[in-house]
Design a protein that fits this description.
With 335 residues, the protein is mainly beta. 11% of the residues lie in helices and 30% in strands. It has one domain (3-334): YerB-like fold (3-Layer(bba) Sandwich), CATH 3.50.90.10. The chain has five helices and 18 strands. The strands form three sheets. Strands 1, 2, 3, 4, 5, 6, 11, 14, 15, 16 and 17 form an eleven-stranded mixed β-sheet that branches. It has a five-stranded antiparallel β-sheet with strand order 10-9-8-7-18, with no helix packed on it. A two-stranded antiparallel ribbon has the order 12-13. Residues 41-63 have a biased composition (Low complexity).
């Protein structure tokens, strides 16, 4: 049984309800979606659409460049981006998670697997959102330290990683690369579990409530809106992050509660933090369409399931994806 069959068997027909939060991993609460074990990390989520000679990447559902690229460990890097930042490497990431951080900045978690990047950065500190997004994917993480409590959470997560203090040769100033991270990673790392159920050729994003879409906007109080527009000629969604234009095959907005974390070491400050454990509203765009639904992630070792309003899994087109963690106070609109 592949991942799609497992997840479909685990989803009840009713709509998933509720949003759960927590700084430490909460106990799963009853819901209409029963989350199962992620399954075989090497299994392709879209085997029917695979190239006859090359396997599909577990993060993109698209054929990889070489067979070895499908089975290697992923690497991940947290980046801090402001309007004045020129981030590097995002165009090669298979998956990017975006959290709205302090001072109108974004905290990005970029995951690389099927493609390489010679320059990734600026690398920033580890945060709880990185750990909670990445644990099920098992990447090797390159990061620049962090508050004491966050470092303890990282150590307890079983994720492996490296900082400039651990090995300065992995980094060049505020930047690193996939080659340097893979070289620093211990041998025996596993490929990531497929986090999304990608569509086969001709399949729609959702079984029901599919709406044509050309523009997606996420507006957060006090900050500039994040706008994505569909480029029909290239079949990608185009947005701007810092000073860089980025593209994605799919953009998925998960609405969730944020809370403020007060940290003391090494310096006192307050940080907004997305509560990625729980349930909430979802809106996805992929191809020229959008669909609304619900997401659910009970805990650290569980994938985040994203279903439409009838309980069937959303199925984005094969390719790279951005997952945006939107606060409940944000305005999310599509037209």
């Amino acid at each position: 049984m592949n991942r799609r069959q497992m997840l479909r068997a685990a989803i009840a027909p009713a709509v998933v309800l509720g949003v759960g939060t927590g700084c430490s991993e909460p106990e799963p609460e009853p819901g209409n979606i029963k989350v199962v074990d992620p399954g075989d990390a090497t299994a392709s989520p879209s085997a029917a659409s695979a190239s006859p000679t090359l396997p599909t990447g577990p993060l993109t559902g698209a054929p990889v460049s070489t067979p070895a690229a499908a089975t290697r460990q992923a690497v991940a890097v947290p980046l801090r981006v402001s309007l004045a930042t020129t981030p590097a490497g995002l165009d090669a990431a298979d998956l990017v998670y975006a959290e709205f951080a302090e001072s109108d900045t974004l905290h990005l978690t970029a995951v690389f697997h099927s493609r390489d990047a010679t320059k990734i950065g600026p690398v920033t500190e580890i945060r709880p959102v990185d750990i909670r997004s990445l644990a099920v994917l098992r990447p090797f993480v390159g990061y620049d330290g962090g508050p004491t409590g966050f470092l303890t959470q990282f150590e307890n997560s079983d994720l492996g990683g490296v900082t400039p203090d651990d090995d300065s040769k992995v980094f060049s100033g505020d930047y690193t690369s996939t080659a340097a991270l893979l070289k620093a990673a211990p041998k025996g790392g596993q490929p990531p579990t497929p986090p999304l159920d990608h569509a086969d050729e001709g399949d729609a994003l959702a079984v029901r409530d599919l709406v044509p879409a050309a523009e997606l906007t996420v507006t957060v109080s006090g900050g500039p809106p994040m706008v994505w527009r569909y480029d029909q000629t290239k079949s990608v969604w185009v947005g701007k992050v810092g000073k860089v234009t980025v593209t994605a095959t799919s953009v998925i907005v998960l609405t969730m509660e944020y809370r403020t974390l007060d940290v003391r070491n090494p310096s006192p400050r307050s940080l907004p933090s997305a509560n990625v454990f729980g349930e909430g509203a979802a809106l996805a765009v992929s191809g020229p369409n959008s669909a609304k639904g619900r997401w659910r992630k009970p805990g650290l070792g569980m994938i985040c399931t994203i279903a439409d309003n009838g309980g069937d899994l959303l199925r984005p087109q094969p390719g790279n994806a951005w997952v945006i963690y939107a606060p409940t106070t944000a305005k999310v609109s599509v037209k």
